[in-house]
Amino acid sequence: xxxxxxxxxxxxxxxxxxxxxxxxxxxxxxxxxxxxxxxxxxxxxxxxxxxxxxxxxxxxxxxxxxxxxxxxxxxxxxxxxxxxxxxxxxxxxxxxxxxxxxxxxxxxxxxxxxxxxxxxxxxxxxxxxxxxxxxxxxxxxxxxxxxxxxxxxxxxxxxxxxxxxxxxxxxxxxxxxxxxxxxxxxxxxxxxxxxxxxxxxxxxxxxxxxxxxxxxxxxxxxxxxxxxxxxxxxxxxxxxxxxxxxxxxxxxxxxxxxxxxxxxxxxxxxxxxxxxxxxxxxxxxxxxxxxxxxxxxxxxxxxxxxxxxxxxxxxxxxxxxxxxxxxxxxxxxxxxxxxxxxxxxxxxxxxxxxxxxxxxxxxxxxxxxxxxxxxxxxxxxxxxxxxxxxxxxxxxxxxxxxxxxxxxxx
Length: 410
What we know:
single chain; 410 residues; two-stranded antiparallel sheet; 12 helices; 2 strands; elongated
């Protein structure tokens, strides 16, 4: 690569591609990714509802446990829907055949552990940098020298944390798109780190614009959906009266049972099990309305955001050195493995030394005890007695002094 071409590539890598925002708006008409996310989250909601009802029927700690398991299931299906919708949008970006809904959902379920592992690695890297910063701050506690170093270290840490925060946000938001395109964890990590390192400014700025676009689109759709919901609710209540009110109580009881699984009995009392078939179907009709409201308010803006992220990642990936990034990740993983092996060996050596010290101490203690038992007690020397009157030496059993005749007191 010539110098001019390298300079051109470097210049292009720092340019902001505003066309990504216009391309992201195409997500308003892409209903398959919306369906993938909505279906996945609906399955997760059903799992949460069923597990909450089962746990509430048992009561006690089991109710809380089942509610927690339901929340985990809901989060898992929501994550799978997010990855599945992104997989479908990645096909649009690459201009290839769009996968089906079931295929995309299965891809999301299969890829979800990869996303969790990738984000865990990124968090651990941040903790590693945090440890380095703590060490630098501890060095600044040295008398006199530490104060001089703080003049450089503290401002440097501030600027470094600003840059690291932007790079971390770039890496986290592009981790999902990297997996949408079918990359492995190591390749995705390398590409994301390369983008965060080479062009954090342009990518971070486009991310801000994409989230702003998401809020604008979501706010407009939420206002339209709220007006439509109030208008529809007014028509239904005005026409059906008590039946609509009963259906609302049923759905509110269902929601209270979802929020507080311990209060299962109260929720069932609100639901009331309508005596007519229509009464029961009204509850499900309102749930379908709630699902449609979710699609309008959440799924559509999310599709716009995800499509923008997919275009952003594809555009950024083409402006960085992927081979160098993969080599960098390989070196990092190799160093981590070497550090882990060294730590394991040091731990084994420390354990061996501790066992040796314990054994030596036990042997010394046993030897000292044996020597103490073997040495006989020294005989007590005969104590001499003297006369209190004349000071003459007395025998132990003498009752009177042989010199002056005074009583000895024995």
